[in-house]
Queue: 2 jobs
Job 1
Amino acid sequence: MTDIEARLDAYIEEHRERFLEELFVFLRQPSISTRDEGMGECAEMLAGLMRDVGIETRIIETPRHPIVYGEIFKDANAPTVLVYGHYDVQPPEPLDLWTSPPFEPEIRNGKIYGRGTSDNKAQIFVYVKTMEALRAVTGDVPLNIKFIYEGEEEIGSPNLEPFIRENKEMLKADLAYFSDSHIHESGRPIVILGLKGMLYVELTARGASTDQHSMRATGVPNAAWKLTWALNTLKAPDNKVAIPGFYDDVRPLTNLERDTVAQIPVDEKELLTYFGIDRFLPGRVQDGYYYNLVAEPTCNIAGLDSGYTGPGSKTVLPSVARAKIDMRLVPDQRPEDIMKKLRAHLDAEGYADIEIEEFNHLIPSRTPIDNPALPVIVGALRDSYGKEPIVFPNIGGAGPNYVFTDILEQPCFVVPHATHDQANHAPDESMDLEGFFNGIRTGVRIFPRLATALVRN
Amino acid sequence: MTDIEARLDAYIEEHRERFLEELFVFLRQPSISTRDEGMGECAEMLAGLMRDVGIETRIIETPRHPIVYGEIFKDANAPTVLVYGHYDVQPPEPLDLWTSPPFEPEIRNGKIYGRGTSDNKAQIFVYVKTMEALRAVTGDVPLNIKFIYEGEEEIGSPNLEPFIRENKEMLKADLAYFSDSHIHESGRPIVILGLKGMLYVELTARGASTDQHSMRATGVPNAAWKLTWALNTLKAPDNKVAIPGFYDDVRPLTNLERDTVAQIPVDEKELLTYFGIDRFLPGRVQDGYYYNLVAEPTCNIAGLDSGYTGPGSKTVLPSVARAKIDMRLVPDQRPEDIMKKLRAHLDAEGYADIEIEEFNHLIPSRTPIDNPALPVIVGALRDSYGKEPIVFPNIGGAGPNYVFTDILEQPCFVVPHATHDQANHAPDESMDLEGFFNGIRTGVRIFPRLATALVRN
């Protein structure tokens, strides 16, 4: 460890309690993008926190939720890193399954519990405090940094791509970098080179024009049965998606990617216990948990709703039935192509009258595994965590990495600091306390090292 | 028409507005048995209305909702009719589909709109006003009448059978009689000789121990998929129930029953328009709407619930999925036997871990079509409606007729006065105004005629 890095670590340790207090204020502010709850207030709060550490920050409006954009300018010849993240969170329901209220963060057993703790508020706040520490200890941030903190990640980032397309010059950088998802369950840090794409749809089946008394079930079609039969044609119990052509454009892993995946340590027994299941679903090509998480697309029922779902019994013949379905895509699948194949499949199976509404879509992305920034990032992580990092060619989570890799043509690295039991998108979401501080310790190492490694000749 | 019958009709006409005012007070009182809403209050109100017309009335407690029991005693040698009905109603949801609030009855286009109007409050109030008219005009009710108005019909009448078994002597009668369901869509009155049975269950499928981020869908089982696949094994798009042995005990219609069903007039095109569908589901034996309604059992999905069902998108992998299913049974199917077959089928199909909770069950029943009271009832209906009655060996609705036919060993006749577009169990339930008054006009004819026809020799 350099002397400077030791002083940076000491600064972080010294201001630990204040960093947490500031983070808790940020966590208490709801920012539920899908329901438009608290979004403007949260953007203003984040901008204030960024300005407090010397980041020149603006709130840039979009058609729905604003982007909080910040810049630190070193000089025109210095390398530039584009830091991305999101301040919006998932809805907290079901509320009765939370141990403490979702927007009243609480520390228990070394974790901060609350909605949006790990996904993504603590993990974006890391870079705010990284800037503070670098400035306070070294008097300087040694390269140019641009921050894009958006408010629409949990609803599929509909306005990020237009923003990126319209601001290509402003957003020029040597690489894109951000913290989301989680480190390995062994506690080893990871670097993620790719995120999955997404097609999120709602299927609506209809029967009679209104709900009917269920005695009429001998003759009147039931929307819930129609939906059940239609869903059954999408995926069978063998776990293979049965939409014709669904797997056509799945890009096989390269040999290096496959070897890298094979090096990911895994205790499948421990994972099974964590999930509370007996066995993992069968894979299409092979059965490894990580191989499938990295290489395979999904077709997941995220919600089913029809008829009477309250307490007790009601003998109703439902006129409407709905399924929310998210399909996580891998390179080189394209959401619009999968949408067409889904429509054609339902038509061919006799379900032309089932409506498909698209809620959002994302193109999958995977940064080349031989990029020269990768060893720098791996080295910084190794030093701050004291553990050997693991590289993922991509992970199971979806995200808008294609806007960096495809539109801005920047390699994109995701470096998580949450733990695998973070329960993001679920009740009792948490952020590991040490993950939060490891994030800042990684930040104060990685930016100076990238400044040196990427310097223009 | 006899002179007496003319005077009875005149009395009914004269007191029309008051009868409606009294009925509306009764309709405004919620009585949702499945949620225990307003049940005690409604029982008290009904008892008061019955006492007002000289019915000796008691409220008899059961383990859940009370039975309102009343008697009019003529003499020990007079015939006795047991009048049955229910004062409980279905939940009104979804509330946003009601034109006027469910518990604020309103007359529009000759119909009274509100929850419980046709099913069953107006149709039980008919007999209260029948007693009033008979007493006022003739000074007498010419036979013995016993009233059982229960509060648990919409939840499967769990306490009716014990009540009947414990009170066989008190409930002795020559026949059981009640008004529920609806007249034919042509406007012709009907007599129903049988009701279907019922097995209402909730299936619960489970995956991981808690909801998961849907990125884990490559490996972690999804409860909604499991439920979908399991439901798909219960009934295929051909509309035949696929549970082995489900149809084993279905009693074929006798020749007379089959001929009687064939005489039921039907305008299938009009029915299709009413339901807003293109065609009826295919039948197991034949395709007639009424043949199937009378002769065939059902397996109906009444509710589906899993994962996120709110607005917008949420990428969750549900740990629990539930389906409410009602199966309407015909003689000689037995709910406990069907339950065993369902469990065995799910086990055999690999769904031994899907839980089945029984909410309620009813044994099906069918009164012999050659009973001597039938022509008396048909004659009275013909005179009060001025239209030829139609006889149904049974209908699609379920009900506890077996307690009369099997336990009390009484023939049981159901004589509806609601119209087919009553929308019972659905939003905008209604009771036809003329149906209500036809009910009273039928009542004042049928009891005196039965008194004569059934007199003991």
Job 2
Amino acid sequence: MKSWDTVTIVGVGLIGGSVGLALRKRGLARNVVGVGRNQSKLRKAQRQGAITAATQDVEHGVSDADVVVICTPVESIGPFAERAARACPAGSLVTDAGSTKSNIVASVRPKWPREVGFVGSHPLAGSEKSGCEHGQANLFEDRVTVVTPTAKTSEKHLKKAVQFWNSLGSVVIQMSPKQHDQAIAMTSHLPHVVASILAASAGKDHLPLAASGWLDTTRIASGNVDLWKQILTDNQPQVLKAIDKFEKTLHSFRRALQSGRRQTVARILAKGKENRDSLGN
Amino acid sequence: MKSWDTVTIVGVGLIGGSVGLALRKRGLARNVVGVGRNQSKLRKAQRQGAITAATQDVEHGVSDADVVVICTPVESIGPFAERAARACPAGSLVTDAGSTKSNIVASVRPKWPREVGFVGSHPLAGSEKSGCEHGQANLFEDRVTVVTPTAKTSEKHLKKAVQFWNSLGSVVIQMSPKQHDQAIAMTSHLPHVVASILAASAGKDHLPLAASGWLDTTRIASGNVDLWKQILTDNQPQVLKAIDKFEKTLHSFRRALQSGRRQTVARILAKGKENRDSLGN
């Protein structure tokens, strides 16, 4: 397994903290530098063993990095990636863990120094929880990470990004930033919207009747509001398309139920069951 | 704890089987008679210890019952409840475990012999699984059972129904059949529709990106299609109202996202989070 001298993590929350814990537990990096704004959170991450050194200064934090992973909220990934790329050694890889890819990849690429490569990544290992204290060394094990090269990505940096996520235990899938954003709108962003609206729609007098079905279906509505506002706004065009598709099917279902077309009702339920059953529990 | 000489379960699937297992494990009934159409399933339930005797004949099966629990699919609860009520001893309680209440309670009540009481019940203990083999003696422990008396329900039979579900470990809530159907449309039937349509909307090329959020949100879409078709059809008026409410909020959300009104986006997400967080994991 490839190992690194220094990996720098910008943003040491649930994902960043888990990257650090995984690197340390697997003995993959001699130094894991954490960069963050909040000194007490950085100290906590260091005590937890997620990072070996901490700084509030991005340029200083990345100055020796073989790999920089930007794990901040979506809106600040682009700006941090640029600052990191200008300050880190020639030949380094800068990657990220953002839930959207097209805007991030487009915003960073053109301005970059030649010797530093940015490869957009998205480990599908989120949670409705946040904060380094919920981080886990095995968060990426057997989970998919999507790596999103473009025509301008060098083979060397792509290989390094794949190696990096593989080394944390992740299964890497490659697709374009746009393909990623389309698929993830259907499998993550739309479910988040739907779960939030389901949870928001239930009145206080209904909640005593919320059982395991409701709890499962709405679990991700507990996610951080500000992070999700950023994700949904950033991937707005694809999220709108996903909502449109969902609304259309929901409305067909509604009409079928209203007019007593039981076979149509059953057909939509059966299609959902088939897709769901194909993925196991 | 009140105990019974004979309890008869009509329909020995996941719920009926769990009623039997709970009665036996808690030593609450001397005889637990299972009534079903399929002899090999009845034999299996008997081997599993969910029932002590089995028959395919409803009238015969209920002839000594203190309590009859109808655990069949929603459409056949009314007809079975009537047959049971005509054949069971005077003073017995007939109840059910159906996911809808208004139609069932209305269909059974007027024709009944005076000495037998029907009290509609709904233990909120379903699962996306089905069959007695998935039954559990603790399925009702600390779960809510809604008991739905009407103006014509006698105190004696209501008390017996509450005692029965309490004795299985359930927390009993009383409400009218209509109140039940309104609330359960929001907390169970609408989530089922939404989960099914989410699952149905994901293309084969999207599914590799389905992670824990999608799996949680769509889990109940694995439920039995025929059972759910019956439930949604039976509670159609309330399900349509719940869909309308959901569609309206989804569409407000869509418009806010499209026009960049980030505060509205955040407000809807925050309302969902508040409701979801109020119920724990």
